[in-house]
Write a structure and sequence with these properties.
Structural class: mainly alpha
Radius of gyration: 22 Å
Helix content: 55-70%
Number of helices: 10
Length: 260
């Protein structure tokens, strides 16, 4: 008898034709109102389990964290480089590597913590792929341009064919949709006991590479990183303001609506 895979939440999905009014999973208690979880912007198609909700909360926290780090990253790069390095950011690791060349002994600690933090983030996206498969990517891409959708489709297809190499590539500082790659790895059926060591090796190697780069450049890297932090801070503030202006403009436009 075949045993169920303990790494995967395996649930029967209700076919779309059963979701029609009068008996579908999206209906309320006979009053015609749709359940909150049946919203098409949600990554699931049936009533969510605890695993669904936990993963959604984790991804929401990651989204808020990423947004908060836009203005904080350049500030931390000069004021708290060890904290930034411990969060896995390459610039912070390079800075710590340069400080190691001048005698700082703390680089092994930030190497380990930076690796673990990056691995934790990657695991959340992998988990989303295991739970929801392609559905989560379709939700993300619904508001994107056709060009972005085509780019994500290519990343998805390649990752499904080369899941293990793609896991390693996802940690490299490349202009690739890393979250899409990691979701695709999970959706491809890669078990966690396979994903975890591969991802850990990739994160450890890349974080170590940043440290080695800073150490190799040495003390001049400190000046370079400080200048980079100043430029990055200006760019981050401009981007954050642009994002906020764009958001409030869309809210105002949608709120106005067409004239009756």
């Amino acid at each position: 008898m075949t045993q169920p895979d303990p790494d995967r939440v395996d649930r029967d999905r209700v076919p779309p034709d059963l979701a029609a009014p009068g008996g579908g999973p999206g209906e309320g208690d006979g009053d015609g109102e749709q359940e909150w979880w049946a919203d098409p912007s949600m990554p699931w198609q049936t009533k969510p389990t605890r695993a669904d909700l936990a993963c959604l909360v984790a991804m929401s926290v990651l989204g808020l964290y990423s947004l908060a780090m836009i203005p904080l990253r350049p500030v931390l790069l000069t004021s708290a480089p060890f904290l930034l390095a411990g969060l896995g950011y390459g610039a912070g690791l390079a800075y710590v590597g340069a400080l190691a060349a001048t005698g700082s002994p703390w680089w092994p600690l930030v190497w380990v913590t930076g690796t673990l933090f990056s691995l934790a983030i990657a695991s959340v996206y992998y988990w989303a792929g295991r739970l929801w498969g392609r559905r989560i990517v379709d939700v993300w891409s619904s508001a994107k341009s056709p060009r972005t959708q085509r780019r994500w489709d290519r990343a998805w297809d390649v990752t499904h064919r080369f899941a293990i190499p793609a896991t390693l590539v996802s940690f490299l500082p490349l202009p690739l949709p890393m979250n899409i790659i990691l979701v695709a790895v999970g959706a491809a059926g890669v078990r966690f006991r396979t994903f975890a060591p591969v991802a850990a090796f990739g994160a450890l190697a890349v974080k170590g590479g940043w440290l080695a780069l800073g150490y190799w450049i040495g003390e001049p890297a400190v000046t370079v990183v400080e200048t980079y932090a100043w430029v990055l801070w200006i760019i981050s503030v401009v981007l954050l303001v642009a994002m906020l202006v764009s958001y409030f403009w869309r809210q105002r436009t949608q709120g106005a609506g067409p004239a009756s």
